[in-house]
Amino acid sequence: MGTAGVAGAGFGRVRVVLWLLAGVLAIRQAAAVLRLPPGERLTDLETWVGDNGVLHVAGSLYETGKFTGTPFAGLVLRPLARSAEQSLGIAWTFGTLLLVVALGLVAARALPGRVSRRTGLLAAPVAISLLMLSLPVRNSFHLGQTSIIPVLLVLVGCFVVRGQRAPGVLIGVGAALQPAMLLFAPLLWLTGRKNAAVSTAGTFVLGTALAWAALPNDSWAYWVHHVAGAGLGDSPDSLANQSLHGALLRLGLTGPLEVVLFVLLAVAVVPLGLRRAVRYARDGQLLLAVALTGCVAVAVSPAAWQHQLLWLLLAVVGRVGTRARDRMVWPVLVVLTMTLPGKMLLPSMALLAPIRENVTLIAALAAACGVPFLLRTSPYFDKPVPTEYARPVPARWNRVPLAPFWRRLVSRPNLLLELLVIRVGYAVYSQIRLVATGGRAAAEEHGRQIHGIEKALGIDIERWANHAVVEMKWAESFFNFYYTSFHFAVPLTILGVLYVRRPADYRWARSSLGFATVLALIGFWFYPLAPPRLMPGLGFIDTVHGPQDLANPDYGAMTAVTNQYAAMPSLHFGWSLWCGVVVVVLAPKLWMKLLGLLHPLFTVCAIIATANHWVLDAVGGAAVVGAGFALTYVLAGPRKLMPEAGEKQDPFPLGKGAALGLDGAVGGARQEAPDGDSGERRDGDKDRYGDSGERRDEGLNEGPDAPAGTERKKPVFTESEHG
Fold first, then answer.
1. How many separate helices (H) and strands (E) can be counted in the chain?
2. Using CA atoms in the order 319, 325, 328, 332, what is the torsion angle rounded to 10 degrees?
3. Are 320 and 184 within 8 A, CB to CB?
4. pLDDT tens for residues 446-495?
5. 3-class DSSP state for residue 710?
6. Could you tell me which residues are beta bridge partners of residue 389?
7. Residues 186-212: what's their mean pLDDT?
8. What is the structure's pLDDT at 648?
């Protein structure tokens, strides 16, 4: 089989895997709903189709305060009540599933014309998978919402149905269901589809008038009394309402002042967002234009519940950044925002609460009004500035590295993307650690096992160390402070220094730490272990948390925020040992190496003296750290990198010539040219050159023998990463 045949076969396998993934996610979503008891699924749907739902009782749709749709929605969805009630909601669940699949297929078809055939074929399963994972779709499945229907109507009208009037009719029906969709009428008008815009507006007026005729009291309540739905719902200020109106209410603004501010902000957002949408539509990126218009609609809607935010997910098609290393920031940010709650994206700090509570709204506003999406006419749209990769040193074994695509950057990775990865990774780690409790009985049994093994080995020093420290108050205060203060600060500081000074080694160190943490989670899950301080009858003193009531199975409120039995392996010691290894390997001075060893030494003393860990927990921590470094070696190859051809090796690889962390390797590898050209020096490029014209060090390995002003060589290896 030729090269083309092999590549085609590989592409076919990837496509099959992606479709299987989409199918598994779809089945999982449907099963998650159907296995719930009838009273716990489709709960939002029950408010209008149940025995006491608003569509079954006499009087106003809005009498109960539960129904938040338009009168037209109540009118046209009434016939669907039977499908929602029969077969315990099975018909409704699978109907929603088909709507999501159709939405993904239409979105994949609407990609700009420049995409390759392979991208077009892979886009559909990827789009469906992302939709299945998104919070709006998950809420629609669980609650029985109908918000997917207006989004699908707009997309079908824009990309599937031909002609002028028929698309406008579909979009107009969507606007009658969600009035903010009427913003698509000016988008159609300004992009030359005036008949479709008129048809959209006419269909909206006709549908609304029909609802007025059939439900005059409800129409008056919705459009006049509740001001187009602004006052509907139990809690308009809840986190689910991700609109400007909801955000202002969460900030404590009410009454006329809030209404005035909401109107002023809407007047500012609408023209700015529509102007950008028209620009991208004229550029040939109609899907992006439609997504931006939807983001504007989300912001200015009186109530934009979370399940109506699919427009932001569609904005993932926009390309941002002229450099390949920055191209993934926007897609990752959108996907994380649409799949994870705000508390996992940002720390639980009071200062960040306004951002954390409105993260989806902020992302929608950024997409609509601020994110600099590239035009198709930009030279970087298809070919961003390539990323420089270092050439790895050959390993001792032929099969290493097992992941040859895992290449090390010469320049620094994107900072925002790194912060997102670290934050989300830690949030996931915290959630898994919290749920991996295993039960008190099993944890105490494992504690007795560990204690017995240590007694047999003669290393059961925990009780002696604990009571000895309690007798010395200065030692108790020191170890308590060290245990609670340096666990996160030191690893984050080391990662920060490596990111700035030695970016090639930053990824090696960060990957090793990540692998060690994942392996530790496996230990927490399968071997819950009670620490010495929670072992009844052994006489340990909890110096950090104070006396514990061992008769209380929850040990107070602390159980709600941390897993009491995540002791084996000890990540307190494991992370500190990682710090020590990284400092010893990379520090240029002997005194720095010795100082780096003090942190794991003090940490192991602290975890034992405070009765928070057994000695064998520290051994387990050392084991997962060693396995983390080993996995990084096996997958990515040795830490050291290949020097350039003809370049003199640095005799002091950890000294002056190793600011990039390349140990004399790739010493002359130049950082990316910011303008995408050959990378030659420009007069204004002060990031690399001083005013005198000489090359600044700034972490670039010049080598000890390199004369001042030596011209740098071309990159060792570059590859463009298409967005």
1. 29, 2
2. -140
3. no
4. 899 999 999 999 998 988 998 998 889 898 889 989 988 888 889 999 99
5. coil
6. 409, 717
7. 93
8. 45
Interval 296-301 mean pLDDT: 91
Only one residue has tokens 């409105």, namely 358
Tens-digit pLDDT profile for residues 94-150: 777 888 889 888 988 888 766 666 676 788 888 899 888 888 888 777 665 667 888
Which residues does residue 689 pair with via DSSP β-bridges, in sequence order? 695
The neighbour count for residue 330, using CB atoms within 10 Å, is 25
DSSP 240-266: TB-SHHHHHHHTT--HHHHHHHHHHHH
38 exposure class (CB count in 10 Å sphere: 0-12, 13-18, 19+): exposed
- Asked if residue 388 lies in contact with residue 412, where contact means CB atoms within 8 angstroms, the answer is no
Looking at residue 492, its amino acid is L
What is the rounded CA–CA span in Å between residue 284 and residue 594? 60
Tokens for 650, please give them.
């640095």
Cis peptide before 401 (omega within 30 of 0): yes
For the chain, report the end-to-end CA distance as a whole number of angstroms. 30
The whole-angstrom separation of Cα 505 and Cα 225 is 63
Please give the DSSP secondary-structure letter assigned to residue 87: G
Across-strand partners of 641?
392
Q: How far is CA 144 from the centre of its chain?
A: 26
Element (H, E) at 719: strand 717-719
User: Smallest Cα–Cα separation from 228: which of 178, 293, 279?
Assistant: 178
Q: Angle at the Cα of 431 (from 425 to 437), degrees rounded to 5?
A: 135
Residues 534 and 187: their CA atoms lie apart, in Å, by: 64
Q: With beta carbons less than 8 A apart as the criterion, state whether 288 and 334 touch.
A: no
Residue 443 CA to residue 199 CA, distance in Å, equals: 67
The answer for 235, left when phi > 0, alpha when psi is -120 to 50, beta otherwise, is beta
Q: Which residue type is seen at 259?
A: V
The Cα–Cα gap between 283 and 111 comes to: 13
Burial 291-300 (b: 16+ CB within 10 A, else e): bbbbbbbbbb
Dihedral sign for Cα 673, 676, 681, 686, please.
negative
